[in-house]
Each structure stands twice: as C-alpha cells, then as structure tokens.
Amino acid sequence: MLLDTENAGAPPSRSHTRHIEYLLVAALAAVTLVLLFAMGFFSHAAAETAEGKPQRFAGYVHPNDMGTGALLFPSKEPGSFVEAPRLATDVVIDVNGPIIRTRVTQRFQNPSKGWVEGTYVFPLPENSAVDTLRMQIGDRFIEGEIKAREEARKVYEQAKAEGKKTALLEQQRPNIFTNQVANIGPGETIVVQIEYQSSVHQSGGEFSLRFPMVVAPRYNPDPIVQTVDLDPNSGYAVNDPVPDRDKITAPVLDPAENARINPVTLTVNLNAGFPIGNVTSPYHTLVTKNVDGMARTILLENSSVPADRDFELSWTASAGKTPHAGLFRETMNGKTYLLGFVTPPADDAAATDARPKREVVFVIDNSGSMAGKSIEQARESLALAISKLQPQDRFNVIRFDDTMSVHFPSLVQATPDKREDAIAFVRGLTADGGTEMLPALEAALRTQGTVEPGALRQVVFLTDGAIGNEEQLFAEISRNRGDARVFTVGIGSAPNTHFMTKAAEIGRGTFTLIGSEDQVAARMGELFHKLEKPVMTDIAVTFDGASAQDITPNPMPDLYRGEPVALTAQLDGTSAVGKLQIIGKTGSQPWRIEIDVAKASEGKGIAKLWARRKIDDLEASAYAVNDAATLDKQIETVALANHLVSRVTSLVAVDVTPSRPAGEPLASTDLPLNLPDGWDFDKVFGEKPQQTIPEDQRKASLEQSEEQAMLVADRMAAAPTARAAGLIADAGTQVDLPQTATLADRHILIGLMLLAFALMAATTFSLWRWQLRGLVLEARGRVR
Amino acid sequence: MSDKRHNDGNHTNEGRAGFLARLNALETVVLAGILLVALAGLMLVGKGFYMKAKAEVSQVLLKRSFEAQLQGEPDVKPWPWADFSTEAEITAPRIGKTAVILSGASGEALAFGPALLANTPAPGELGTSVIAAHRDTHFRWLKDVKPGDLLLITRKDGTNLTFRAGTSRIARWDESGINADAPGRNLALATCWPFDATEQGPLRYIVNAELVPDAGQSKLSALDNSVQLPVKSF
User: Fold this and answer.
1) % helix, strand, coil for chain A, step of 5
2) pLDDT tens-digit profile of A526-535?
3) Which of A72, A80, A256, A417 can pair with A60 through a Cys bridge, CB separation 3.0 to 4.6 Å?
4) Segment 144-203 of chain B within 8 Å of chain A by CB
5) Structural domain tally of chain B?
6) What is the extent of the structural domain holding B135?
7) Per the domain annotation, does A572 fall within a domain?
8) Are residues A418 and A331 in the same domain?
C-alpha cells in the first residue's frame, strides 16, 4: 500500500514497469499457492500408502514370513515372534527316479530363563507329503502319530496341560506346516526332524528339485537407542513403532557370516535312473562325487550358503538319453500304485517363439468391498495385463458391481489405440456398490462370440471374491466354459482364495494371488508367462485291461511348454497288467501314447504321492459335494491310511523315550545317548571339523551366536511356569484392526481455514481498494 | 496504475458499468485467487459434512433393514446396491447411543456403520468378537465408555446380550493383542486414537468387554458346561 501511494504520484513510464512487477509477483504467488496445495495432497497420499504396509520390527517375525524351517517363540510384542537360534541344520535328500524323500533335522535352543511354547514353522514345495515328525526336547524323545485334526489337538492340549513335552504338526496351507511344541524348559535344546515325500520337477528335459532355505530378516546387531518423547498435549509417550528405522536396511545377513551362525549341511543322494549329464545348482557351490553313471552324491560346500536363496538342484540326462516317458510302480496293502510321466514331443510351431493368437476377456470387480487398496491393485494389474497384449490378440474388458458394463461391444483387436482406450477406462474405475458376479461371468463366457480357429480363449477374473453364491458361479463356469480357460487373480489382503482357487480349477486355468502393491509386477509376470505360452489341452488318461480306480490329477490340467504329463494311479490287485493310454491335443492336432504297465520299474513312496494328490483332488471337488463332513471324512480316510498330514489330519507327538529298565542305575539315563531305532540326529550334534576356519574367527562367530541368543532371550516372552507359557503363546495370534479414522474432520478443518483466509484476504483487498480510491480521487483533484 | 486511471476515465466517460471493469489486471488476479480459495474451502467443508451426513443417514436405513431382519426376513439389504448386510445392533445405555453393526470391515462398509471384523466370532460366541468403527462418526462416544458400563447387543437372530465394559488400552493396528480364539465370550470395540487428531494414524483405542451371564442366552451355541467362564487369574 505504501508502494501504491508512491506509485500514484509517479510518472506514467515508471508506473508501467511497476505494473509488470506486480503481475509477476501475483503470478509467483499463484504458483506458490498451487504448489502448496499439490504438496499438501501428495504428502497426504504418501502418508496413506505408508500406513497401509505393515511395519515390521527388526528381529521380530511372523509365521507367514518364514522362508525356511524355523522355531518361533512368542515375543514381548503381541502378535510378533522371535526366532530361536538355529544351532545346526542337516538336510538329506534322496532322489530315486522321479521320487524325492527329504529329511530335515534342525537343532534349536531356548535361550531364555523361562518356559515357552514354541511354534516350528516350515514352508515346503507345493504337493509335499509330510509323514514323519521326530523331536527331542531336553532329554525326552517324542514321535508324531497321525490322528484326525480335532483329536490330535485334544491330545496335545491335554498333554500340554499336564506339563508333558508334546508337539502337534498341522497343515496351515498346502505348502505351510506348523509344529507347536509345548513345555520347552529354560535353556533346553530342541531337535526337530521331519520327513516328506515329493516328486521331481521336470521341464524342458531338465529335472530339478528345490529346498527352501531363505532366511527371514533377522536380528539386528546394532544396539537399539530409544528416546522417550512425551506428547505435550496428552502427556503420553508413544513409541515410534520402529525406533531404529534407518538401521533396518539389509534384511538378510551377510551369507558368509550367516553360514557360521547358521551352519547347514546338505547331502543329495541322486539316483536319477538314467545316465546323468550335468548337475548344477544356480546359487550354491556343490561338491559332487560320482557313484556310477546313474548316481551322484552331492554335498554343499559349507562355507557358502547364501541366506537369500533356496537350494535348487537341476540335472539333465547325458546327450541323447533324455527319457521322454517313465513308469514306476509300488505295491502296498494289496493295491498297485503307479507313477508315470510323459513329455509330449516338442511341436515345431511351439519351439519357435511364435505366440498363439489369444482372445482375452478381462473381468474386473469394482464393488464396494474392493474400495481402498484393493481397487488400486486391481486397476494396476489390469492395466499391466492390457499393455502386454500383442496386436494380433483380441480382447474386451467387463466391469461389475451390482451393475455391469462391457467396454467394447465385442472382442476388439488389441491395437495401441484400443489398448490405451481400455486402460483409460480401467484407470477411471472406482469401487462402490454390491457384488453381482453372475451376470459378468455370463457375459464373459457366453456373449463374446465364437472362438476363432487356432486362438486361445482366456477369461481373466480380478476380484476379492466377496460373494455368497459360489455354487451358482461354479456351475456357470463348468457349464459354459467351452474352450475358454478361466484364470482368477485374487486381490487384496484377504481375498476369498477358496472361491478363486476352485473357480480356476473348474475353469482349467490358474489362480494368482496379489497381496500387496509390490507383488503386482512379479505375480502378473508369472501369469503372463502362462497366458502367452502354447499349451497341450484336453488330456485324458485311460487304462486298457486294468481296473484303475483313481487316476490323479483328475481332471488332468493343461500343460505349459516343456512340462510333462505327470500322473499317479491306484490299480486293483498286485499284478501289473494292461496298458496306459494318454491322449491330448496340441492346438488342433491330436496326440496319443501307450505304455505297457508290466514294464514299469519298482519305486518307493509312490503310494504316498498318490495319496497326496488324491487329497488335492478331493479338496478341489469340494464345490460338487454338498456335504462338507462327507468330504472331510474321505480326505481323513486317505490321509490316515497313508500317515499323511492334511487339512483334516495332524501329527501329534507321543513320548517315546524308553522307560528306564529295572535295575539300571538312574545316572545312566541322565544323558540320552541311546537314540531310538531309526533316529539319526548325529549330524546336528557333535563338533564338525572346522579346519577351514581359523581359531579367532571361530571364537568370533561363537561370540556372535551367544550375543544373538541373548538378544533373542531379551525379546522373548517367557513364562515362569510351563502352564503360563501356553497362555502367552495363545496371545500370539491376533486380529489386525482396520483404519477407523475418516478424513471428514480434516477436510472440514482445512476447508474452514481456507474460508477464513479468503475472508481475511477479501477484507484486506476491499480496504486497500477503498483507500486507493480515496488516493486516486485526491490525486485527480490535485491535477485539476 | 495508468490503466486504472484509464479505466476510471472510461467509466465516467462512456458509462461502462460493473465492478470488475473498475479493477486492474492485478486486482482481478488477486480477487480470482481469493474466490478460488473460498471455493476450495467450501468444497472441503462440504465433503467433510457429506461424509458425516452419509454416516448418519445410512444408519437410519440400516436400522430399518435390521428391524426387517429381526422380523425374520432373510437377506435384506439396506439398499439394493449395498455390499454388506447388517449383523447386530449395539447400544450404550448410559451414553444413550445406538448403532447398527455391519458384517465385515472391508472396503467402504465402515463409512456406513460399525463393522464386525470378518475373522472374529459373532458377539456372544466363544472367543473375542471385534467391532470397529470410525472415531469421528459412529464410535465418537467410545471415549466416554467407562469400565463397568453396560453395552447391549441385539444380534440378527434376536438374541439380546449384555456386555460389561472393562479396561481400555491403546495399541498399534497390527499389534492389537486381540486373540479371536481367546477363552471366554468377549467383545472388543476398536476405533482410532488419538480421538481429536485429524490425521489417519496407526494407533487404535480398544475397549474390552465381557459377556454378563444371564438368562435369555439359550440361542448361544456350545454353551459348554465343562468350561465355565474362565476366572481371570494369572
């Protein structure tokens, strides 16, 4: 205003430059204002995304995070666990033809001065059949016995309440097993030994196996410095959930260091059944000994066990000896079990990189239950999927809530224009309304026209599956699927996996789970790989001249490039007669093969593999069985007969420590040196020769592991009695609470502030105008 | 400023009326800015009040649909495009507040009412059922719940239950320490904390409550005789 006063009396030329200056200032102010707004919104958005991700403490773990066998104790932080120091791990893998038997022995310690109930968590490759559990806790030996799940739990709870050593092995998910161990005394050592059966993976002439070894983020050796910051308003001190945020950078220990803290010995007895060519492991250094042309003994070089890589071993046949078919049999309890695999001949068209023409119908759920993170992930996944389409492909997009709309009138060629158009449509979707899935599914399966010859029809379904009419949807898929394959993509933190797994099975596609934003790229990548590669379809297996009751998997899934048909079957009687026939279709070309059952070679453990697959099939048929209890009973029968852990059966440990023979002095039982028959814990006890490691280094590593044990003990919630330990362990499972603050108050507050600001500015402005007018009039008067 | 004089001259000479005509460019920009700020403020206030109004109005509709459900109508939806159903009704008699509880706290359900978390049992069943709601709408009164207060719950099957509020505490959302399978028949009410904050934060305020055993609980499943309500002793 002062400037203005000057200005009013200034010569016109000067006032003109002033004017421009004013305009500049005004423009700058406007830009700043806009920037401030934008920043406000962005920082707000950033705060929201950070909130969505669960924050983890260094050293604290959750059962689902475990990438290898680990014993977890409840920690002082509710809901979190700490990992028991792993003193030694020994793995023996026996490969006999197509069958793998793995025995894992691990030694842990309870470093605390109290009683605890621990949970041993171990992830396994899919389709592993767990049948044996042996444990040593302190001086007691216990061995698992298969029982129905409920019964097993009762036995466990009973034994736990009585203060006995006991263990319960349950299947949590098909590839995650947990073993609860009760009444571990202070400082006691626990040895866990599990055995499981699985089959060799084959792809493109390469045979492979995998053993999970990824070590979850572990103890942070830096001292934790915590400051107490009192809130001046409330007087409370709120802990920063991650006090040493900046130190949690490297989630995985240095591999070389880890090998000393966490020694792993691994032996593979490889008996391939054919002349072996190459044996390789992508991440681990191997020491290979030739036994003969068909067998190798493989050891892991102990000093180089990376903590962030699963152990993978692959082998090939020597040139020209790659088997394209194999049949193995086992006779057990008056029945014959068969395991067969056949690699279809590589199609010339498939061998080149030519992609088949695809017709993809994307269906996206934008109902209210998808609101928030879920719809963001769904939009991002779908946009990615559309952008990956090739110009020769055709596609369409359908969205649904309680209404539905089909984006293009019919399938359109995936030209860049159309793709952009569809992506813009998808990005504009918001989540609201109810979930009426059936009409969308009908539209996807029925109204998209006929499949062009040679094209693959794929329906990709993105949803959280929050629906109630599952049966109706399953029926719709199985009735109207035709040649289409239905792929489901589960979105959000808790999608209805049951529905989506089954829908994909009936639709002969696959199920992809996307749990968080950062999984979108990787998981969708896996899906694209399957969507893009040519497949062998309509595979059927029959037996000629033998009565086969159960052939698994049933129905046979589609094959992706380089995969073999792998089947197991149960035949009546002990005599192997008849012929095995497999038919299928590559594109439109039929394919057929016959194998004589009598020529099958003997194999061990086939019955268990068959049982495990039978259970999978039964689980998959759940939608067709009205009575869940009947299904559970069927699964239970198969699992109990084959001593397998399943969804409805568990292994419960029974104390098998031999009682002290009469007359034997008490002192001799103090040290449990005589292991029960068939138990082999030697590898994890006893000092290993460590010539390679110099004395000072060994000392250092010993100190480090002691330090680690102290850290663990510090964070553990140990109980003074064995009974209380159970209560603490129970409190470990907990419920995550949703976000319960709306931004309404914030909006109103900011809005009111803006209004107040506008009011003030307007007042100032009018005052300024008023004064200015007076001055102008005065100036004019003076001129006159 | 020469412009202004010029404009003023125009005004007097040619009679061009209007307020804007008398402003120079700078003043127009400033005025437009002020108007924009005022508009943005109005919109934000409107949005805030819309969210609150939605929460209030939907409760009326929910109440109606819940009563229909109590009359025995199955599968009633509060409105045709709703993505949830009503589960129960909670009343805090001392504070004089009532709210209809929805099933599942996923997505947008919480904008309309308190929700029973899907992975917890129904109120009155064995275990701990967890009901969450927004601190600035439906559970604004949660801070006034004192230990010893009674909380009445009417389930959709018509069962009337009484819970007695116990202690309250503050925990992070992913470390609630609430065990859905805990012994006893418990209820946990959760909302965001601190109450007067306007930011969305990780902290939650949790009120624990225990079922008051009385008559009229015949509909409760598995009323086990063997396991009496556990005595809280460590």
Assistant:
1) 35, 30, 35
2) 788 778 776 6
3) A80
4) 170-182, 188, 190-192, 194, 197-203
5) 1
6) 80-211
7) yes
8) no
Q: Mean pLDDT in chain A?
A: 73
The H-or-E segment that residue A400 falls in is strand A394-400
In A, minimum Cα distance to B178 occurs at A734
Query: Where among A532, A567, A597 does a domain terminate?
Result: A532
Do the Cβ atoms of A737 and B130 come within 8 Å? yes
Q: Check whether the bond before A553 is cis (ω within 30° of 0).
A: yes
Is A214 found in the same domain as A167? yes
Question: Would A611 be classed as within a structural domain?
Answer: yes
A614: domain range?
322-342+536-624
* CA atoms of A141 and A676, how far apart (whole Å): 8
Does the beta-carbon distance from B111 to A742 stay under 8 Å? yes
- In this prediction, residue A225 carries a pLDDT of 38
Question: How far apart are the C-alpha atoms of A339 and B117, rounded to whole Å?
Answer: 46
Confidence of residue B38 (pLDDT cuts 50, 70, 90): very high
Q: Which residue among A367, A741, A747 places its CB closest to the CB of B83? A: A367
- Per DSSP, helices labelled H in A203-263 are 255-261
CATH code at B139? 2.40.260.10
Q: Do A370 and B107 touch (CB under 8 A)?
A: yes
Q: Cβ A734–B40 below 8 Å, yes or no? A: no
Chain B residues in contact with A23 by the CB 8 A cut-off are 25-26, 29
- Cα–Cα nearest to A122, from A83, A156, A151, A77: A83
Q: Give the pLDDT confidence score for residue A589 in this predicted structure.
A: 75
Least confident of A314-328, A615-629, B102-116: A615-629
Select the more confidently predicted residue: A778 or A245: A778
Q: Which structure tokens are listed for A254? A: 């240095």
Are A338 and A473 found together in one domain? no
What is the predicted ipTM?
0.74
pLDDT at position A518? 77
B195: in domain: yes
| Distance (Å, whole) CA A111 – CA A113 | 7
Statement to judge: residues A210 and A334 lie in one domain: no
A397-440 pLDDT tens trace: 999 988 889 999 889 999 999 999 999 999 999 888 777 888 89
Q: What is the pLDDT of residue A189?
A: 82
Does B117 lie at the interface with A, CB-CB under 8 angstroms?
yes
